[in-house]
């Protein structure tokens, strides 16, 4: 029987509920339990796929091809459990399903209402495919009191009555601000937030109190008394020096112990925290450092490249070095005074990440050229690989080489494909179709050339599986031209039609991949491409 932990947030947004959920799941997992984390997003978008990275951060893609909230990335990175389509739901997705059913006449003339139809759909979503799990952690997006989140709160209230008495738990994450002028911590916002939650029929069992300051026992007692929870269940969650310290820090504060106690579990094994001790040891005691330039478009908001940022750090953990990331707006290299040499010369490696649209593309292509000509380690991801191929084609005389994503071109080195094979059979899309859900999404296999650099990076593997999110592909018709100049197609889709990986054997480290390896990297299991890339940067740092 799976037990359910409902995680809500109060007072303000951005308290790090996702990280908290991921850390609690990691702690339960360290005690040998099987866990899964789900995210409920109250907004009306059907999925985050079409939301701007500036508004919502990166879109995290699962193996089964869902475009999900970036919190699912935290969940995967902290637990190693691959997220699925069924782990992220939005109000928009639920309403779409319900309205489609209503149009088909499935409700047989009944009035369709938030209670019970929407709440039933939310409950079904929470309970689905949980039979073989010990704990299901359900994080509710937004803040208690938001209009959009009301149906989710009501569904939780109902579930807490319908399931067994010790089968559910409510964890409420709040803020205990420190008012410098008064020199005091303030518990009132927490009291109000708990009252708001209680007004919706949910009594929290555990309060996780985010604070910049130490919360003394007297304040914890006060919160416990006013908020109707056990004093030990008021857990201080102070700002952590790194996200990787959070599981260990919460364990020290007794979070997992109190969660188990609230469930009435008294025979839980002690946690095995070896992997977190190793990760934090590597993180806090590096033996060197490297500086990587990421030449992209959404450099103003690092959440837009969340997984990439983490994967680069994981590569650093694998090599025991600190990774400094310099975010560079590709557009500056398109301006007369954008001195590319001054910007890129001090770097130990260059990465061009995924992206959409023409803006900044010439700056990215110029960065590829710099890395190729100067023998600086280069990693191109998705759009970055496409830019590497366009740069390579221009170098062998196809001066008009471009992508049809940027407009009509006579030299479509990158173009749209309208058909490809997936596990479900032949997939088709229209060139001008809807933007939502028209991409090659999710895990696809690639075959690696036997004696290639990437095959060695992947430990001698000949077939890999990686996650995709793109509409355009490198045009295999240009293979011969590109290979003539040393840009080798070393990974292909199994049917041989879609280039998946390109590399330059005559360069110290030059790899472009059509997929997103950053989505599968974990702190305790860094992705081999990132370990290899950072190792190349370490080597480069000894040369410059
Ligand atoms: N814009 C490119 C495409 O759609 C690359 C996408 C990406 O980098 N994720 O193919």
Number of strands: 25
Shape: globular
Largest sheet: 9 strands, mixed
What is the number of helices?
18
Short description:
It contains 18 helices and 25 strands.
Structural notes for this entry:
With 544 residues, the protein is α/β, with parallel strands linked by helices. It has two domains: 3-278, Rossmann fold (3-Layer(aba) Sandwich), CATH 3.40.50; 286-541, Rossmann fold (3-Layer(aba) Sandwich), CATH 3.40.50.880. The protein has 18 helices and 25 strands. The strands form six sheets. It has a nine-stranded mixed beta sheet, with helices on both faces. Strands 5-2-6-1-7-10-11 form a seven-stranded parallel beta sheet, sandwiched between helices. Strand 3 (60-61) and strand 4 form a beta hairpin. Helix 5 (114-127) packs across helix 6 (150-162). The longest helix has 16 residues, at 528-543. The mean pLDDT is 92. The chain binds glutamine. Residues 1-265 are annotated as: Amidoligase domain. UTP binds at residues 13, 186-191, 222. It catalyses: UTP + NH4(+) + ATP = CTP + ADP + phosphate + 2 H(+); UTP + L-glutamine + ATP + H2O = CTP + L-glutamate + ADP + phosphate + 2 H(+); L-glutamine + H2O = L-glutamate + NH4(+). Residues 301-535 form the Glutamine amidotransferase domain. InterPro entries: Class_I_gatase-like (IPR029062), CTP_synthase (IPR004468), CTP_synthase_N (IPR017456), GATASE (IPR017926), GATase1_CTP_Synthase (IPR033828), P-loop_NTPase (IPR027417).
Which key terms come to mind for this protein?
544 residues, alpha/beta, Rossmann fold, nine-stranded mixed β-sheet, seven-stranded parallel β-sheet, 23% strand, globular, binds glutamine
């Amino acid at each position: 029987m799976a037990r359910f932990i409902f995680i809500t947030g109060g007072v303000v947004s951005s308290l790090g509920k996702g990280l908290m959920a991921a850390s609690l799941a990691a702690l339960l997992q360290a005690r040998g339990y099987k866990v899964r984390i789900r995210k409920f997003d109250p907004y009306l978008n059907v999925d985050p796929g079409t939301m701007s990275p500036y508004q919502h951060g990166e879109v995290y893609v699962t193996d089964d091809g869902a475009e999900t909230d970036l919190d699912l990335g935290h969940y995967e990175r902290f637990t190693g459990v691959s997220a699925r389509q069924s782990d992220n739901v939005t109000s928009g997705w639920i309403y779409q399903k319900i309205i489609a059913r209503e149009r088909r006449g499935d409700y047989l003339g009944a009035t369709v209402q938030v209670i019970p139809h929407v709440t039933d759909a939310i409950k079904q979503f929470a309970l689905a495919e949980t039979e073989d799990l010990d704990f299901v952690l359900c994080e509710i997006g937004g803040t208690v009191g938001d209009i959009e989140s009301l149906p989710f709160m009501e569904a939780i209230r109902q579930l807490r009555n319908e399931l067994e008495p010790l089968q559910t738990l409510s964890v409420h994450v709040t803020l205990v601000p420190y008012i410098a002028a008064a020199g005091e911590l303030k518990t009132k916002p927490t009291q109000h937030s708990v009252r708001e939650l209680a007004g919706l029929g949910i009594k929290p069992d555990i309060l996780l109190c985010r604070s910049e300051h130490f919360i003394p026992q007297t304040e914890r007692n006060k919160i416990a008394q006013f908020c109707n929870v056990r004093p030990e269940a008021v857990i201080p969650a102070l700002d952590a020096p790194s996200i990787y310290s959070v599981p260990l820090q919460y364990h020290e504060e007794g979070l997992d112990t109190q969660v188990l106690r609230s469930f009435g579990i008294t025979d839980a094994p002690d946690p095995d925290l070896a992997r977190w001790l190793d990760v934090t040891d590597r993180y806090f005691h590096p033996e060197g450092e490297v500086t990587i330039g990421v030449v992209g478009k959404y450099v103003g908001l690092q959440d837009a490249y969340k997984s990439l940022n983490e994967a680069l750090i994981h590569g650093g953990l694998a090599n025991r070095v600190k990774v400094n990331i310099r975010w560079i707006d590709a557009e500056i290299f398109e301006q007369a005074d954008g001195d590319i040499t001054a910007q890129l010369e001090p770097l130990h490696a260059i990465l061009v990440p995924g992206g959409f649209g023409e803006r900044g593309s010439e700056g990215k292509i110029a960065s590829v050229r710099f890395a190729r000509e100067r023998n600086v380690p280069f990693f191109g991801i998705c759009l970055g690989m496409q830019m590497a191929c366009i740069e390579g084609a221009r170098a062998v005389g196809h001066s008009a080489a471009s992508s049809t994503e940027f407009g009509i071109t006579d030299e479509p080195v990158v173009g749209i494909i309208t058909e490809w094979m997936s596990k479900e059979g032949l997939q088709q899309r229209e060139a001008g179709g809807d933007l939502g859900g028209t991409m090659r999404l999710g895990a696809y296999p690639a075959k690696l050339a036997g004696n290639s650099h990437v095959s060695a990076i992947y430990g001698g593997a000949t077939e890999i599986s990686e996650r995709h999110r793109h509409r355009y592909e490198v045009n295999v018709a240009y293979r011969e031209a590109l290979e003539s100049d040393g840009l080798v197609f070393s990974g292909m889709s199994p049917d041989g039609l879609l280039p998946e990986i390109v590399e330059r054997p005559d360069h110290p480290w030059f790899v472009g991949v059509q997929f997103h390896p950053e989505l599968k990297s974990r702190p305790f299991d860094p992705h081999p491409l990132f370990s290899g890339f950072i190792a190349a940067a370490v080597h480069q740092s000894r040369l410059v």
